[in-house]
Sequence to fold (426 residues):
Amino acid sequence: MRPALWLRRSRAVSTLRRGVWDDNPVYRQILGICSTLAVTNLLVNTVVMDLGLIFATAMSCWTVSLLRNVTPKRVRMMAQVLIIASYVILVDLALKAYLPEISEALGPYVGLIITNCIIMGRCEAFAAKNPPGLAFLDGLGCAVGYSLVLLAIAFFRELLGFGTLFGYPVLPEGVTLWTIMAMPPGAFFMLGLAIWFFRTIQKPREA
Amino acid sequence: MEGPPGRGAAGMRIQDRPWYPVVFMVVLSAVFGTAVSTVEVLSLPRQQAGEQARLRARVLQAFGVEAPTDPVALAGVWKARVVEGRDEVGPYYALRERGRVKGYAFPFEAPGFWGAIFGVVAVDVRAETILGISFLRHEETPGLGGRISEAWFRDQFRGKSLEARDGRVLEFVFRKPRGPREVEAITGATQTSNRLGRFLNEFLAGLPQRPVFRRGGDG
Fold:
């Protein structure tokens, strides 16, 4: 393999890996917590939210990067919000048209992806300074990292709170359900445990 | 969308000109605004069909009739059982059973904590008991006020008498209900419960006076 290609590919891999694992937005950067707490009591809602965020983040980063050389510095945040909002509204429209029940369950949280710090953060910190391909991977990686943590939290919240997974009953009859898992406080407990767990298994590093 | 960075006649880059940020934002807004609006317009028929199906499912839910999830089956049940009508006050839905009208459902818009709560309440043909309630759309906090859509809350209304005492039909209480007129409110969502309760009491007390009941169920 030619060194240039190998280098580029390794940069791509490390960009992805950083978002998913090393610099995970949820348990490393503690970003996107509002939606992490709000949409994780049922796996189905979480999956849809995740897919929406992955699409919006990756596409926003790609677009911001594509326009980075012609975007005036003074209005770059305005431009970023406009771009992010457009992609998020597209997701919202698609949900309303094709998955109305889930769109209703997610309520305002899809629209609130616009203000999700993960997207703004990636646009500002990475996409505005890097080529579109890498920016896309960076957005993808961070959104996937966010998604995996949310899925892990939702798995335990739905299992313990409702006794189901994706709506299918999996716990035997007679098991006492932890109602608190279905309620907002359960999200706080699970998020705390998740941050603790992931930070513990991650290689210790300099603060 | 924009050309590569060019240079103006005076040697100043276009990006450095004072009007450039304004032009840039206008062009960007126009491009993205057009794209989003186009998708919105294209998906509108589908959204409206979904809205209509949701309304129908919720009306049936208020009547206590099982609503099929399949859109075609839902349209079938709707056509066979429900007649849409309108009296002097507003629209209503009549449920038919064995050729006779069993009850009427009335859409309402109640104040909530964050925004309006849209719902449907169904009562029997003599305006004596509540058949059920359902909620179409609301902006209450998920897990708190949002629990009004949950079955345990809605089911409490089924079979309650419409007779008003001291101008009130129902009592919203923050404990296990004891009397036949009591409905358990949602702990942690006091504002949602109180506002919805106040509205429903007024709305339900006024229902027997609706002109549709005076006509003797011709729905």
User: Anything to note?
Assistant: Chain B is about 35% helix and 20% strand. Chain B touches chain A at residues 1-5, 15, 20-21, 24-25, 28-29, 32-33, 35-36, 39-40, 43, 46-47, 50-51, 53-54, 137, 139, 142-144, 146 (CB under 8 Å). The CA atoms of residues 4 and 14 of chain B lie 10 Å apart.
